[in-house]
Amino acid sequence: MYEFYAPTTIVFGEGCLSETAQQIKKMGVTRALLVTGRSSTASSPGFKRLCDDLDTAGIRWVHFADVSADPETSTVDRGAELYRAQGCDGIIGFGGGSPIDCAKGIAASVAEGRSIRDFVGTGLAFTKPVPPLVAIPTTAGTGTEVTNAAVFTVVDERGHRSKKGTSSQFYFPRLAIVDPLLHASMPPSLTAATGMDALTHAIEAYVSRFHTPLSDMYCLESIRLIGRSLRTACGAAESSEGAAEDKAAARRDMALAATLAGVALSQAGLGMVHGFAHPVGATAGLAHGLANAILLPFVMSALIPDAGERLASIGQALTGKSGIGAEESVRAIARLGRDIGIPENLEAAGVPSSHFESILADALSYRRRKASPRAFTDAELRELLERMYRGRVDA
Ligand SMILES: [Fe+2]
What we know:
Blueprint: E1 9-12, H1 20-26, E2 31-37, H2 45-56, E3 60-67, H3 73-85, E4 90-95, H4 97-112, E5 133-137, E6 149-155, E7 161-167, E8 175-178, H5 188-207, H6 213-233, H7 243-268, H8 272-284, H9 288-319, H10 326-339, H11 356-364, H12 378-390
Parallel strand pairs: 1-8, 2-3, 2-4, 4-5, 5-8
Antiparallel strand pairs: 6-7
Helix pairs in contact: 3-4, 5-6, 5-7, 5-9, 6-7, 6-9, 8-9, 8-11, 9-10, 11-12
The chain binds fe (ii) ion.
Fe (ii) ion is lined by residues 142, 197, 200-201, 274, 288, 292.
């Protein structure tokens, strides 16, 4: 027996950003809180167009541009305060995973009437439906536009930073606008890191102990699209005559792959790549996608005894070659990483060894640890982190 719940309406395609205002109007929103990062997104032509379209449709809006990477709970609180003070009745997250997660947190905390802090890492469940929530991703990676999850940074009294995931059926955005044209301005390094985040979602959901035939379908198609297009999207494939069209098609593939993987992870969960990537990001400031990209082949290697057949299927979907086994599959992932400029271990990425114990402690308490197909012991996770620091997975 299994369940599949994916309630978000997905509007997909080049130029579909222009649908947003009308769709929001249909939801009855009259004053929207627009949540973005502080940097380039907020001054991008896409964002400007969205604001103009809202004006034309007669929808008032307030801009909360205060979100930095891996938003702290205090940022969510400030956004919720602005929402209430301005009398908003809908929320739009525009940007990468951080502004969209922040929008989810604001939506949940205004619905609950309390700080998001009360729900992060405490086990307290959300109980109330949120105001209309729209997600417009400008990267192809997190899939948060269709997920039931949001990640926040908690800073404790001693200044220790940890990234904590929260999930809720109320987090599913009502609408996701996935417009690959909005991803065109990503630099290759961001395309690489976010694309590997999407691949990690698809792989972790596929090998998860909670996978289902329906989530598998989303995972394998996502992996196939990423195998076909991530190198081209990053400019790491040999260019042909129609290079510009190839790149546009690759961007389209990656946008869809990220969304599909998001649907899958909401059903099947994630595993220890994310279990380690969160503390690596929180302590050393490594971007989430980059951390996943480095750690993914190490975790896959460690899973071979328990998930060999599934790993082989992953390699076959990624490369389009039948009959390859689990080891070859792991090498294919490592090779993809090398081709798009991913460092081979944490040391090469500049993560200080002084963070080792704190990363390990956080990973041991990862809330989704039970989804891993291997029930890693604490000692095994310590060894795995040692390999992630200085080891190497052959490509
Ligand atoms: Fe992720």
